[in-house]
Design a protein that fits this description.
globular, six-stranded mixed sheet, 304 residues, 8 helices, seven-stranded mixed sheet, Glucose Oxidase, domain 1, Rossmann fold
Length: 304
C-alpha cells in the first residue's frame, strides 16, 4: 500500500472538479481563501472553470486534469471541489499504473465515491471520503475543524459522532479495510470492471435524495449479487432527504437487508450529505467498535 505524501504548512493543494462544474466561481474563490488562511497554497485545475453541459468539461479534460495534478510534483494533495455526476465517465481515461507512481491524497465524497474506491483498488493508495469545497461555504464548527485536522494529521483520533448517538444494529468489534461511500455510485459500478471488492471489508454507505423504494432497489441488488456475503462490518452514514410519504423508512430497509449478514453494524454515523461531517478513510484498516461507538483507524494515511 502506497501512503499519501505528508501535507504540511505551505503545501500546495490541487483543486479539481471530476464531476459537475461549480455554479458560482465566487464559492471557489471563497474556498481558496479559506485554504490560504490556514497556511496552504493551492492550484486550480482546468476543470474548475470548464463547462460541458452539466459536466466540468469533457471526460478527457476531467481525466487529464486529475492525472496532471497527480503527476505534478509541486502539488501535495488533490481536493475535489464538488460532486454531482460524471466521475465514472473518466475511468476509461485514467492510467492507474501512472497514478500508482505518484501517491497523494485524493479527498471528496458523493459522486467522487467512484474515484476514492478505484484509486484504492487499482492504484494501491488510500483516499478520503471527505468534505468538499462547495460544501464549506456553510460553516459548521466540527466539520471545519475535522477537515483541517485530517489534512494536517490524518486520523490520529477515533472517529466518533460529535452530536448524536450511533444506532447499533448488530453489536461487536471487528477489524478490516473500509471501502464504499455513496450507495448510488456503489450500485452503479456493479457489473463493471471497476466494481468494488467487498470481500473481508468493512462497508461504509450513505445516500442523498433517493426515495426509500430506490434505496430498496439498490440494497436488494447488492444482496442478490452475493457480493456482500463476506463483509466484516457495516457503517451506515447519513441518508439525507430519503424520506417519503410511503409507509416505509430507510432505517427499516437497512435493517431488513443488512442486519441478517450478522456482522457488526451501526447506523446514523455522521458522515455524508449533512453536517457535522466526519471524514472517513477509504482503503485503510480500521476497527469498528459498537460498544465504544467509534471507528479507530489502524493505519497511517500519510508517509511517516
Amino acid at each position: 500500500m502506497n501512503k499519501c505524501r505528508k501535507i504540511k504548512p505551505g503545501s500546495v493543494l490541487g483543486i479539481i472538479c471530476p464531476s459537475g462544474h461549480p455554479k458560482n466561481i465566487d464559492v471557489v474563490n471563497k474556498f481558496c481563501n479559506l485554504l490560504k488562511s490556514h497556511g496552504y497554497n493551492y492550484k486550480l485545475g482546468k476543470s474548475v472553470t470548464a463547462v460541458e453541459g452539466y459536466l466540468a468539461g469533457s471526460d478527457i479534460l476531467r481525466a487529464e486534469d486529475l492525472m496532471e495534478m497527480f503527476k505534478d510534483e509541486t502539488v501535495d494533495a488533490v481536493l475535489c471541489f464538488k460532486g454531482g455526476y460524471g466521475a465514472q465517465r473518466v475511468l476509461p481515461y485514467l492510467d492507474f499504473e501512472e497514478l500508482k507512481k505518484h501517491p497523494k491524497l485524493l479527498m471528496g465524497f458523493s459522486d467522487i465515491t467512484v474515484l476514492l474506491n478505484t484509486l484504492y483498488q487499482f492504484a494501491d493508495m488510500p483516499t478520503v471520503h471527505g468534505e468538499m469545497g462547495a460544501c464549506m461555504q456553510y460553516y459548521e464548527k466540527f466539520t471545519f475543524e475535522h477537515f483541517f485536522t485530517t489534512l494536517s494529521d490524518g486520523f490520529n483520533k477515533p472517529l466518533k459522532n460529535p452530536t448524536k448517538k450511533l444506532n447499533i444494529i448488530n453489536e461487536g468489534i471487528v477489524e478490516g479495510v473500509i471501502v464504499g461511500g455513496n450507495l448510488s455510485l456503489i450500485y452503479a459500478l456493479m457489473g463493471t470492471p471497476y466494481e468494488i471488492d467487498f470481500n473481508d471489508k468493512i462497508l461504509f454507505i450513505e445516500e442523498v435524495s433517493e426515495a426509500p423504494y430506490a434505496v430498496d432497489r439498490m440494497l436488494s441488488s447488492l444482496i442478490l449479487s452475493g457480493k456482500l456475503k463476506n463483509l466484516k462490518g457495516i457503517i451506515c452514514g447519513y441518508f439525507t432527504d430519503c424520506e417519503s410519504t410511503e409507509n416505509q423508512t430507510v432505517d427499516e430497509l437497512l435493517v431488513h437487508y443488512l442486519k441478517p449478514l450478522n456482522v457488526p453494524m451501526v447506523a446514523n454515523f455522521q458522515s455524508g450529505h449533512s453536517k457535522p461531517f466526519i471524514n472517513v478513510p477509504i482503503g485503510l484498516k480500521v476497527k469498528l467498535d459498537t460498544f465504544n461507538e467509534c471507528v479507530t483507524v489502524l493505519e497511517s494515511l500519510y508517509e511517516e
